[in-house]
Every structure is written in structure tokens, then in C-alpha cells.
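Appendix B, example 12.
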Amino acid sequence: MAERIGLYPGTFDPCTLGHADIIRRGAKLVDRLVIGVTTNPSKNPMFTPDERMAMMKSEVKRLGLANVEIRGFDALLMKFAEHVGASVIVRGLRAVADFEYEYQMAGMNQQIDDSIETVFLMADISLQPIASKLVKEIALYGGDISPFVSPAVKDLVVKRVGEVGRRGEL
């Protein structure tokens, strides 16, 4: 039987506990899970692609998942999925707004390659409000992000905020 490979793509800027939850659960569904760290300049990244790759490697090591690998890409998702041999795209959902966007993307991806299925995993209820964009915003305004990210990621974000400067001084 062929190895079942899943692909979980994202910018992971930064990696949140919600991402880690989807990785942990997605890794149970496939023989090998590829975390595809992609570029998306429109999301105003805090970390470079190489920094995000290193962050994800560290987080996967922390999770103790032997069947997960990290790969960077800057290409059409479905072309990258074909390149890594993925038969499944894993996507996390937090809310109805996520579903509308993800449903549209899954439909477009199916038009490109209908041999690759998209699987949606609902985020754990306690993690549903977490979004990387909000984590960055909280950190930039001096708030505590420890409920949303691992201690290692918190340290990276706090260090970066120290380099770029906080906002919103009272």
C-alpha cells in the first residue's frame, strides 16, 4: 500500500497553539505530514521564511512527531502538493468565516487537481479564537501572548517586538 502523505500549508507567522493542535491531529490521519511553510507578503510577516521554517522545526520537535517534516515553498499550492506526493491537504477551521474562504479554496484546488482531497479539521474549542495576526498585534501592543503560543515561540515573538519596537505607549 502506498504511503499516504498529507500537506498542511500555511505562513505560520508565528506558529500558534492552534497550528500545533492541527499538526498533532493531522499527523494521526496520514503516514507522513508535510508542513508547507509558504510566503505571503500580503500578511505582513513578522518573521522571514527561514525563521518560520526554524520555528516550525522546533515546534514539531517539541510535539514529538516523527512522521512530520517541514518544507518551504513559494509556488501554487497544488503544484507543491504534487511535488511532495500529497494526496490530502489538511486545513484548520476556527469559525464560519474561515469555512467560507477555505471552501472556496478547496473548490479551486479541486479544479486544478481532483486527485488531491482537502480535509478540514476543526480547531479545539479552547483554541478557536487564536489567530497569528492577533497574536502579533497583542505582542506589538505589549500584551501577554503566553496563552496562545508555546514558550519558545513567545520568546521569539517578544524578541522580535523588541527589535521592531512596541506600539501604543500610554
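The first strand starts at residue 5 and ends at 10. The chain has a mean pLDDT of 92.
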